[in-house]
Amino acid sequence: MDYSHQTSLVPCGQDKYISKNELLLHLKTYNLYYEGQNLQLRHREEEDEFIVEGLLNISWGLRRPIRLQMQDDNERIRPPPSSSSWHSGCNLGAQGTVLKPLTVPNVQISEVDGPPEGDQMPSPTDSKGLKPMQEDTPQLMRTRSDVGVRRRGNVRTPSDQRRIRRHRFSINGHFYNHKTSVFTPAYGSVTNVRINSTMTTPQVLKLLLNKFKIENSAEEFALYVVHTSGEKQKLKTTDYPLIARILQGPCEQVSKVFLMEKDQVEEVTYDVAQYIKFEMPVLKSFIQKLQEEEDREVKKLMRKYTVLRLMIRQRLEEIAETPATI
């Protein structure tokens, strides 16, 4: 990759920019960390726009269940072959066994009512003349009729189910199941989605939900950058998650990108996060010291204003004792 010096600016949020040179330095560090892995990022220039693209790891941090779609939006069950093409390929017996193909001259539907007496057509099932063979043909066609198509709409064959599974991504091995279509992904489990640096937070959310065929609206969720210190920073709708990940650094032991519910998580600033890691007794001691300091300040102010009140009262008494001059 060419990490040459650049001077132009790259947007990283609303009214926020970073120099291309600085971003390339972060990108170089990021790719060195993931050297030899598929998490390395690539960059390119398109119409004077600097674009970074690649996989972004996102951890599941949901507290409530999600709903999976019953079927893919673009799913189409291919109709069965027509009766003519089916007969031209092979013939199935009553138990699904393949029988010898019947040539077209042997069975003429237009000549069923009046076949020549001397023309006997040998066939494995022709033991009573041509009439039994005429009854076998519609039975064979009925197995691939429109009734079968309607039935397949409700009950999928094993091959259809395998095909649908191949086209549906799993959430940590969990495929769609009508009994477990509503479930909660394991907290902290990781997935990834391929995005670029021009995609905003709502676009990344929609792409992630569409990847796993999740019915929930993208407006229910948000992306958070969660640090090991406990700091939680919510990505705004105008932020670019891939740029934010690059600027945070590649190590996920320091910070991770989480998918969480908007109404279940509150942002935690760095100052507050410093106290989260302490045990409860330590926090109580902090509160006690702050309370003692507050009490000292209150007493100090009370003494100050008490003295001031006494001075004002004394002055007023002096004024009252002084005789008024005409």
From TrEMBL:
GO CC, any one term: nucleoplasm
Superkingdom as given in the UniProt entry: Eukaryota
Gene3D superfamilies in the record: 1.20.5.110, Phosphatidylinositol 3-kinase Catalytic Subunit, Chain A, domain 1 (3.10.20.90)
Record region (Disordered): 111-134
Molecular function (Gene Ontology), one example: protein kinase activity
Domain Ras-associating: 176-264
Domain SARAH, first and last residues per copy: 272-319
One of the GO biological process terms: negative regulation of non-canonical NF-kappaB signal transduction
Name assigned to this protein: Ras association domain family member 2
Organism: Saimiri boliviensis boliviensis
